[in-house]
Amino acid sequence: MNKFQVTILGCGSAMPTTLHNPPSQLVEMNEKLFMIDCGEGTQLQMRKFKARISKLHSLFISHLHGDHIFGLPGLLSTLSLLGRTNDLHIYAHKEIQLLLKPLLIYLGNHMQFKILHHPLNPDQHELLFENRSIRIESFPLKHRIATNGFLFMEKESPRHMIREMIDAHQIPVKEIQSIKLGADFTRKDGIVIANDRLTTPGNPARTYAYCSDTAYTTDIIPRIKGVDLLYHEATFAETEKVRAEETYHSTASQAAEIAKLAQVKRLVIGHYSSRYNELGVLLKEAVEVFPATELAIEGKVFEL
Does residue 213 carry a catalytic annotation? Predict the structure, then answer.
């Protein structure tokens, strides 16, 4: 089974602290490395946790508040210093050009790679990236500015061929791929061998959903239903519920309620307000609603 993991690089919020870095995560799947958000100091976190910066495939920016994008200039400069030549895809709202254009002018001819910007639709669900084995989608969240969540999905793998059945029924090599995709096999004597006798189920498709800054909204549930791992912001405890509503953020218990309603398997909460030096209160409130809750902590890796 291919590696599918999420590494937390930063899980704080807008106000800098010495406890947490601004938001950023790495998603590794299908031998590709994707970054979600790029807060200040992200490239240093990649160094600290021994992530291969040169392996970075694409960046997904949930929204354009500073704590989610201020690490981008340094990261692009470092990629240039490392001699990157492959195109870098950045999925972000159209206004990111206000940052990218002067930055690219500043970096000048030193950059040997192109930045390909793919504008996000802040109002609709859409497919962003797809190949033979994975899909990446975006969907609207509810925040003070245009904000999107992301869904990383494996495609269901082909069924596994039972090696002994190939020899027993003298199955030609040219037939194996269609059998893996679900076809039955007809022998030379006309006997049909059912697919479930020739194969075993493929690896189950795994899914990860990232819900960045957002007020509590059940509108996202159809997009994250039943995912294996959900990251949902939990900026405040319930004592600050009014503040959460005013700033279009969520409390830990609200994040847990979304996980419960969406019937996800595991929940990770993060984007902690700087007022919390100790995260136990947030975890306690979330676990009371959704027991399979964990805290995002810098350097922590979540395997799917």
Answer: no
